[in-house]
Write a structure and sequence with these properties.
With 236 residues, the protein is of the alpha/beta class. The chain has a single domain, classed as Carbamate kinase (3-Layer(aba) Sandwich). It is built from 8 helices and 11 strands. The protein has a 9-stranded mixed sheet with strand order 4-3-5-2-1-6-10-11-9, with helices on both faces. Strands 7-8 form a two-stranded antiparallel sheet. Helix 1 packs across helix 3 and helix 5 runs parallel beside helix 7. The protein is globular, with a radius of gyration of 17 Å.
């Protein structure tokens, strides 16, 4: 039994690094692909947005002298690299997968359109949305919320290295307390920094629930899809 029919899975680029300082750790990549393949076998329609922070972050580039717009474009290209790597791993696991980009870059991938995305999803093909929104000053969090609303996903799943939302960073503060459930308004008021405000607003205004969970513990994604209480549930 599956709890959700169509999901948007947001993956962290930084999580792909594993214990490395940058780049892609094959063990993490293949773990993600296996978990995605597992839920595809359950009949779940899967859209994915993956960040590029393991390669380049536009905002951090400012401190190194990069123009913000150029830095954001570099970040978009980083998400395309990660998307192509994830596509290859998912296909190797046995599930068909398409990459759609927010800016034209054939022959690497198809240009995004809602109709193309929905057609692939209905065929039970995984769809990875790359290059963010195609515009600077927008994060991949915002891109994931936007694509989730566009494809009419049942839920936005944010896979991280942490098992939910806490009062503080649990990797830095041992006294941090985990939330099992929190509202969008409460998360904003308490400055929990789950996603940026633009992404949060998109989710809230479109009544799109969000679940933050630990994607790096293999099996968690399937448990979540099966209805187990994993991570933190964020809703209106």
């Amino acid at each position: 039994m599956k709890k959700f029919n169509r999901i948007l899975l947001k993956l962290s680029g930084e999580s792909l690094m594993g214990e490395q300082k940058y780049g892609i750790e094959p063990a993490i990549l293949n773990s993600y692909a296996r978990q995605i393949h597992e839920i595809a076998l359950m009949g779940v329609e899967i859209g994915i947005v993956i960040g590029g922070g393991n390669i380049f972050r536009g905002v951090s580039g400012l401190s190194k002298g990069f123009d913000r717009v150029k830095g954001d474009y570099m970040g978009m290209l980083a998400t395309v690299i990660n998307s192509l790597a994830l596509q290859s791993a998912i296909e190797s696991a046995g599930t068909p997968c398409h990459v759609l980009t927010a800016v034209r870059m054939e022959p690497f991938a198809e240009f995004y359109s809602k109709n193309n995305a929905l057609e692939s999803l209905r065929k039970k093909e995984v769809v990875i949305f790359a290059a963010g929104t195609g515009n600077p000053f927008f994060t991949t969090d915002t891109a994931s919320a936007l694509r989730a609303v566009e494809i009419e996903a049942d839920v936005l799943l944010k896979g991280t290295r942490v098992d939910g939302v806490y009062t503080a960073d649990p990797e830095k503060d041992p006294d941090a307390v985990k939330f099992d459930e929190v509202s969008f308004d409460e998360a904003i008021a308490k400055q929990l920094h789950i996603m940026d405000l633009t992404a949060f607003t998109l989710c809230k205004e479109n009544k799109l629930p969000l679940i933050v969970f630990d994607m790096n513990t293999e099996g968690n994604l399937k448990k979540l899809i099966s209805g187990e209480k994993i991570g933190t549930f964020v809703k209106n």
